[in-house]
TrEMBL record, chain A:
It comes from Ollibium composti. Keywords: Cell membrane, Membrane, Transmembrane, Transmembrane helix, Transport. PROSITE patterns: ABC_TM1. The keyword Cell membrane applies. This is ABC transporter permease. The lineage of its organism: Bacteria, Pseudomonadati, Pseudomonadota, Alphaproteobacteria, Hyphomicrobiales.
From TrEMBL, chain B:
InterPro entries: AAA+_ATPase, ABC_transporter-like_ATP-bd, ABC_transporter-like_CS, ABC_transporter_ATP-bind, P-loop_NTPase. Gene3D superfamilies: P-loop containing nucleotide triphosphate hydrolases (3.40.50.300). This is ABC transporter ATP-binding protein. Belongs to the ABC transporter superfamily. The lineage of its organism: Bacteria, Pseudomonadati, Pseudomonadota, Alphaproteobacteria, Hyphomicrobiales. It comes from Ollibium composti.
Length: 259, 256
């Protein structure tokens, strides 16, 4: 019971801030008499979102699929590579610059190219999502391994643990907090990446829905789709927080009083 | 009798900074020996050599007469900070050494569980380290060390991070435990009283670059905390050791 209360207390200020913002927007749209084809009020956005819920939902599903598949691929690749990099300094020196360059590529230029090469299907979306999320995950993992307490490694060595055992028993678990921090950041990138990929060309998806709504002078539907993507991001974010709580029960003990 | 451990003329420099300047010492089976020296002298560095973390520039390390090779498994090491893994429960922290040796989880647990009461940790098997007090963490770290059943314990300032009261309690407890188990032990400490209280012999090191300035034997009867005469004799030894230690410190200061 106190747990839910404290959760409410923490979520409260954010809820109030958002409500205030929406109210101000509603009043402005109402009082200034601005045309809804330029700035629709939040109430109108909500109405239109409800009226078009079938279309919105049909376009959200492909985005979710692209996000999760792309993120899954990126996660698996980042994990395998992070282990290789942790074991080989030469590999780290050789590959890190390449990864950094991959992060500086402007998505605006890359997205249409990837679509051009791989078509309108799922593949280019997965690739773009993986591109934007791979590096943050890789860096988080490599940094996490490096954060291992030196004394723990010395202790393991004194016990006769080899390189792999030291990795498994100490470096890998030490990376957990870094891993989850990276996860929280890149899951939000993942949604944006998927929408951007669809924007560059897709049969269905939130990105293409936004593009069409814009071309039809329907900012209310654009905003409705934005609302959906924001909700999606928040849900995924919450899911990572939940998984972290389950996977790392000791972290809360370190911060709070003992139960 | 050949000593359990024998260091001869160990030298080590990090870059151009000499740290160990010809250290020789020995430890016999069943003996409790302390190394006492100022901070930064190179005491932890000495332990690193024993557990294979770094190599000496010159000198020899012998275990029961044989040169120490790259093989491990002679020493159970307790690092300066407790180095408990925050993500493992106390029970799993304590079995770590046995796990590394390849013992199954179940057998390892059974083996260490019997030791929990003696270490004052009964009932805390499933707690995380963050839930334990400083003294309990040190006892858990010590339990993890002795559970490995090695020839010799290497204790690097096991009580350095504790408050004075807890530390005194831990020293008494360790002395009682040692009388029961007669581990061969090498202890690093800054604390003169601790060294005199626990040890059969004490090596006093100079400030960096470290040499052995003096070797004391502590001929006091055990248990060590008995009676007023025991206290007076201990004070006499403490005074002598402290005198030597302070002298080396001033030498260190005048020739930086
Ligand atoms: N890996 C290293 N590289 C360079 N210098 C080092 C290294 N390890 C230790 N030193 C230096 O060697 C000296 C001795 O260090 P060491 O940790 O052995 O001291 P200590 O006697 O254990 O000190 P304390 O009592 O404070 O723990 C220090 O001056 C330290 O800076
Ligand atoms: Mg030290």
């Amino acid at each position: 019971m106190p747990k839910t209360l404290s959760l409410l207390a923490r979520a409260g200020p954010a809820a109030i801030a958002i409500a205030t913002l929406l109210l101000a927007w509603q009043f402005y749209a109402y009082l200034s008499g601005i045309s809804p084809t330029i700035l629709p009020s939040p109430v109108r956005v909500a109405e239109q979102a409800w009226a078009n819920r079938r279309a919105l939902w049909d376009n959200t599903l492909p985005t979710i699929r692209a996000t999760l598949l792309g993120f899954g691929c990126s996660l698996a690749t980042a994990f395998v590579l992070s282990i290789l990099l942790d074991f080989s300094q030469a590999l780290r020196r050789a590959l890190f610059p390449v990864f950094i360059v991959s992060q500086t590529l402007p998505l605006v230029a890359i997205a249409p190219l990837v679509v051009l090469w791989f078509g309108f299907g799922l593949m280019p979306k997965i690739m773009l999502v993986a591109l934007v999320t791979f590096f943050p995950m890789l860096v988080a993992l490599v940094q996490g391994y490096e954060s291992t307490e030196k004394e723990i490694l010395t202790l393991l060595r004194s016990m006769g643990a080899g390189r792999w055992l030291r990795f498994r028993l100490a470096r890998l678990p030490s990376a957990a907090p870094f891993f989850f921090a990276g996860l929280r950041i890149s899951i939000t990138y993942a949604v944006v990446g998927a929408i951007f990929a669809e924007y560059a060309g897709a049969a269905r998806g939130l990105g293409i829905y936004i593009l069409n709504a814009k071309n039809n002078f329907r900012p209310d539907l654009v905003l409705a789709a934005v609302g959906v993507s924001a909700t999606l991001t928040l849900l995924l974010f919450a899911a990572t927080v939940l998984v972290q709580r389950l996977a790392m029960p000791w972290v809360r003990l370190e911060r709070g009083p003992t139960p | 009798m050949t000593p359990k451990l024998e260091l001869e003329d160990i030298r080590k420099a990090f870059g151009t900074t000499p740290v160990l300047d010809g250290i020789s010492l020995d430890v016999h089976a069943g003996e409790f020996v302390s190394i006492l020296g100022p901070s930064g002298a190179g005491k932890s560095t000495l332990f690193q050599m024993l557990i294979g973390g770094i190599r000496a520039d010159s000198g020899s390390i012998r275990c029961e007469g044989q040169l120490l090779g790259p093989e491990v498994g002679r020493f159970a090491f307790m690092p300066q900070r407790d180095a408990l893994m925050p993500w493992r429960r106390i029970l799993d922290n304590v079995t770590l050494g046995l796990e590394v040796q390849g013992m199954g989880r179940k057998a390892a647990r059974e083996k260490v569980l019997a030791l929990f009461p003696e270490f004052g940790l009964a009932g805390f098997e499933n707690h995380y380290p963050a839930q334990l007090s400083g003294g309990m963490r040190q006892r858990a770290a010590l339990l993890r060390t002795v559970a490995q059943e090695r020839d010799m314990l290497l204790l690097d300032e096991p009580f350095g991070a504790l408050d004075a009261l807890t530390r005194s309690g831990m020293q008494r407890w360790l002395e009682a435990m040692w009388r029961r188990h007669r581990w061969t032990a090498l202890l690093i400490t800054h604390d003169v009283r601790e060294a005199v209280f626990l040890s059969d012999r004490i090596y006093v090191l100079s400030a960096r670059p470290a040499r052995v300035v003096c070797e004391f034997s502590v001929p006091l009867p055990r248990p060590r905390h008995a009676g007023a005469t025991g206290l007076r004799d201990a004070s006499a030894v403490e005074a002598a050791v402290l005198e030597t230690l302070l002298k080396t410190e001033t030498i260190g200061e005048s020739n930086p």
